[in-house]
Design goal:
The protein is an alpha/beta fold and 198 residues long. The chain has one domain: 3-Layer(aba) Sandwich (Rossmann fold), CATH 3.40.50.2020. It contains 6 helices and 10 strands; from the N terminus they run αββααβαβββαββββα. The strands form 2 sheets. It has a 7-stranded mixed beta sheet. It starts with a helix and ends in a 14-residue tail after the last helix. The structure holds zinc ion (ZN).
Amino acid sequence: MTQANNNAILSLFKEADALLQGHFKLTSGKHSEWYFEKIRLIENPAALDRIVDLLVDRIRSEKKAYDYVISPAYGAITIGFLTALKLSKRFAFTQWVEKKMAFRPGWSGLEPGMTAIVVEDILTTGGSIQEVIACLKEKGIAVAGIYVLVDRTGGAVTIDGQPVGSLLALKVAAFDPEDCPLCRAGVPLVKPGASDKK
Ligand SMILES: [Zn+2]
């Protein structure tokens, strides 16, 4: 991934208001200069369409064979669906059914011996991707690739022995409040979700 590509993707996220720059209080209590508001991607279909175009280019360039695109509910459904549409593949999603990810009954085409790629919005710990892979294995479906829009680990993670293809690998620095350069600079602190973007 070149810096120019990274910049283009960053601008698309910023355009959709999905990547906010400022001074944010994270749920961990730490402070950060950047915040991903992924619901903005769903609120801005035209911007998401252009972001998914880039993801589709990336997936196509790897020339893999697969039958399905699979995403975990709910945030990634639109992303996986658009990806499948552009790649002319079938789409299905997993969802939480009592504390475990599962395919609800009703999907008609998921058969043993098939192959799928997994598409997720933002990789933080990889927990939901691991759950999706477990669901696929249970059905005898092989995983041909894992793709995310944003990898917040900075590209450090493999899941189930596979690398994660990302549009943007970005390790976001988080500061303890007493050691935060943004606090020192007097930038107003915002708690995402509790107030509008600043
Ligand atoms: Zn701070």
